[in-house]
Write a structure and sequence with these properties.
Length: about 450
């Protein structure tokens, strides 16, 4: 419980109207997308960077813990105030696009800007901000940087880290730092912006973000391949890229997922198919798109694809995307609790990964529908169990641990998208050596010796 004198001091910094400690706000800010709950003691909305600095300096002096929060859409509990203290929110004031510099193709934004708002502002002037997490309509750019978010377009255009040119941030002691420049090249000094990307609010509070924009391709086309088996589809994925074609997206659904979408929406999907691949290509010339699709079809057919459909217009493209876009909500037919992970492997390991997941499914007697961003080697594995049955939950978690081990053995990562936060912290030792974890902890201590920023996350506590 935060002493009232601290609430009063915080009100003196940001104004009465920007500090809340009533029950309704504490409940509203106790959640994120994990649906786990931890109530903070107060929620504070800084008006500008100077406020952030004064708040952090005060909290550091009094050892009050702080959880920075974007939209609370994280899937691993990063924005949960697991140790109470204050939640720092940016949606009220620090939510402005400060500049779109068309000459240098750069945007400067505050952390509370919604991803989609930047995408729209960039497109209005013919520019393009590609990172498009599925949560793009509400997720903030501060949260995207802190989680290094990526989306459907990642296989061609990369993820948030590929667009962060510079950051302004406040250290836990209140000092303000700049990291990076508005230049394409900058090799002076440590890459501090690179360390802050994916730091999940544990090192510093990001107060301004400079992002690279690119020019928007004029044309886009969608195609779908139907495959008899998952293995053939996974071979087709990595062989397409290896053949020199880089689609914008190459997404996948396995048979369990196809059947779930069909049961829910009756769209006439091929329920006997082993897998579907949905792919987008883009460019500025029709002939370029035709070439890419011809090459993709060749690789798909050589790997067992029985049918290859190309959308003729936007409506047909939306139809081809329908099953993928509705995969996540449909698979709930297999169990009330979805233990959803976002493991990622080098693309060429996808066929083996999916085979191993099938073995885990049989060993534990649980259904594991899989779908996801196979163009990035990123598979959403969903262990489906009865959430009211503790035994089933235990089995589900054992299955996940086995999947994590297989992923790491293949040179993959525990998380391609959702980060570590609270939920994956217990698994860090599966993926990192003692020496590597000690280095992470030393970096944490260098930034935050009093451990006031987001303690308990990413297994950083000694
Ligand atoms: C339906 C759904 C779909 C999703 N799809 C994707 C997807 O396709 N790809 C993907 O990558 N993720 C996805 N996510 C996960 C989530 O949206 C991302 O992790 C996103 O980047 C979180 O942004 P947020 O604004 O909600 O941040 P929050 O969840 O509020 O916070 C996330 C982390 O960022 C830190 N943070 C926030 N602001 C700051 C700041 N200013 N300074 C320092 N740290 C800060 C927090 O402390 C926390 O650790 C999805 C989530 C949902 C619910």
């Amino acid at each position: 419980m935060l002493d009232k004198k601290h609430v009063k001091a915080l009100r003196q910094i940001v104004g009465e109207e920007n500090v809340y400690d009533d029950k309704a706000h504490m409940i509203a800010y106790s959640y994120d997308a994990t649906r786990t709950r931890y109530e903070p003691d107060a929620v504070v909305f800084p008006r500008h960077e100077e406020d952030v600095s004064a708040i952090l300096r005060y909290c550091n002096e009094h050892h009050i813990v702080i959880t920075p929060r974007g939209a609370g859409s994280g899937f691993t509990g990063g924005a949960l105030p697991a140790n109470g203290g204050i939640v720092l929110g940016f949606e009220k004031h620090m939510n402005k696009i400060l500049e779109i510099d068309m000459d240098n193709m750069v945007a400067v934004v505050q952390p509370g800007v919604i991803n989609m708002d930047l995408q729209k502002a960039a497109e209005a002037v013919g520019l393009f901000y590609p990172p498009d997490p599925a949560s793009q309509d509400y997720t903030t750019l501060g949260g995207n940087v802190a989680e290094n978010a990526g989306g459907m377009r990642a296989s061609k255009y990369g993820i948030t880290k590929d667009y962060v040119m510079a950051l302004r941030a406040v250290l836990p002691n209140g000092d303000v730092i700049r990291a990076g420049k508005k230049t394409i090249k900058d090799v002076a000094g440590y890459n501090i912006a690179g360390i802050l990307v994916a730091s999940e609010g544990t090192l510093a509070v990001i107060t301004e973000i400079t992002l690279k924009l690119i020019s928007k391709p004029k044309l886009n086309k969608t195609a779908m391949g139907i495959f008899p088996s998952v293995e053939e589809a996974m071979n087709a994925v990595y062989k397409t890229f290896a053949a020199g074609i880089t689609p914008v997206a190459m997404e996948f659904l396995d048979n369990l997922t196809i059947r779930a979408v069909e049961e829910k929406f009756h769209k006439g999907l091929p329920t006997d198919a082993g897998a579907l691949l949905v792919t987008d290509v883009d460019g500025n010339l029709d002939i370029d798109l035709e070439y890419q699709l011809e090459e993709i079809e060749k690789v798909f057919r050589a790997n067992g694809c029985s049918e290859f459909k190309i959308a003729k217009d936007e409506k047909e493209a939306a139809d081809l995307w329908f099953a993928r876009r509705n995969a996540s909500q449909s698979i709930t037919i297999y169990g009330s609790k979805k233990i959803n992970e976002d493991i990622t492997v080098p693309r060429s390991e996808l066929p083996r990964l999916l085979k191993e997941i099938e073995k885990v499914s049989q060993k534990y007697g649980v259904k594991i529908p899989c779908f996801g961003h196979t163009g990035d080697g990123n598979v959403h594995t969903n262990v489906m169990v009865d959430g009211s049955d503790p035994k089933q939950l235990e089995i589900g978690h054992e299955a996940i641990v086995e999947i994590f081990k297989i992923t790491v053995e293949m040179g993959g990562t525990l998380s391609g998208e959702h980060g570590i936060g609270l939920s994956k912290a217990p698994f860090m030792e599966l993926a990192f050596s003692e020496e590597e974890i000690n280095l992470f902890r030393a970096i944490k201590r260098a930034f935050d010796p009093n451990n006031i920023l987001n303690p308990g996350k990413m297994a950083l506590d000694d």
